[in-house]
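Hi Q.,

Before the meeting this afternoon, I wanted you to have the NDP prediction in hand. No need to reply - just skim if you have a minute. The sequence and ligand are here:
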Amino acid sequence: MLKKAIITGINGQDGAYLANFLLSKNYKVYGFYRRNSSNDFWRLKYFDILNKVTVIDLDITEQLEVHYYLNKIKPDEIYNLAAQSFVQSSFNNPYQTTIINSLAVLFFLETIKTLKLDTSFYQASTSEMFGNINSTKQNEKSGFNPRSPYGVSKLYSHNMCLNYREAFNMDTYSGILFNHESPLRGYEFVTRKITNFLASYYTNRNDKLHLGNLYAKRDWGFAGEYVEVMWEMINKKKDFDYVVGTGRTTTIKKFIEFCLNYLEINYQWTGEGVKEKCIDKKTGKAFIEISKEHYRPTEVNYLKADITKLKKDLKWEPKIKVQELAVMMMKSDLLRNK
Ligand code: NDP
Ligand code: GDR
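Predicted structure with the ligand bound:
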């Protein structure tokens, strides 16, 4: 019999990669998505899999509907990827962020428990739960000090999954994933904002990109690889939580430079703080500037994964390095702009 998996947030970046991966493993895939006026399943179409998955219009905060579909489908695995996932927006919408990222997760756990389903549950946890801690690398034993409503909301769910595992012997897992990007990344996240802008700047040499803090450091990996770990965790059943990252960290400024070097745009940085600019040596004009509005009220300055446990237990480590990732995203956005 085919294994049945539900992916919540199937319309997101990870949802599309994971759906594609599970189909390749012969799963029957159900995807919960939230209808909005503009979604056209572009990511599922990218893989040409829209007609291979069963998509269900279901906001995960609708408790009764979640109960109905879990009871109907009785999935072997649930991958809970749906979230208000934009950190910046969580400062403006803390309540909605909490309802979706925290309480909806509790409803899922309660539903699995009360229906006595034989279902493994994967929760999409995040390096944002670490926030600012004084360590050069973060692993499963590091403390948590979230710096945004998003980080706080995800920490609640992480802890709740652990509690249901311990209290009710439920098969829950938490993947503490560091930033992962791809050509399917949402346009609001900084890597995609940069590659999308530079792809059009490359041909037009006009317009300006406005960014916030260029000096935060992130451990960026490739989403297409990271979704494999979600499946490995649920299927190898070694431990509850794994940190997933590359073990390297890079500033936003460096990510921009990887892209500019690939495009062979000659540039020079000038100024400091909000006056910092990137000048195009060919035109003599600034094409990247700082805007205060993109600064966060509280920032996570530094993240770098320690994946020792992942390598040991699951024999898994990422292959794609940040520079290759920048080039991959640049190439894809250049093609789309042609
Ligand atoms: P995306 O934002 O691309 O995808 C999240 C999806 O969840 C969107 O399609 C969104 O729908 C959907 N969603 C939001 N609210 C609801 C709701 N109430 N009901 C149903 N669907 C909803 O995120 P990613 O794919 O990048 O990330 C996947 C998960 O992993 C998220 O939980 C994120 O927080 C977490 N994560 C991501 C990391 C990353 O670097 N990408 C790192 C660590 C964790 P809509 O399109 O309508 O907004
Ligand atoms: P992050 O990703 O907050 O780490 O969360 P994002 O790409 O939004 O920000 C990364 C860093 O870049 C700085 N930054 C800017 N960010 C955005 N979006 N726009 C800007 O203009 C800008 N300028 C500078 C930010 O301040 C930050 O330091 C992502 C999401 O996918 C989460 O869902 C996930 O949990 C974490 O990664 C791990």
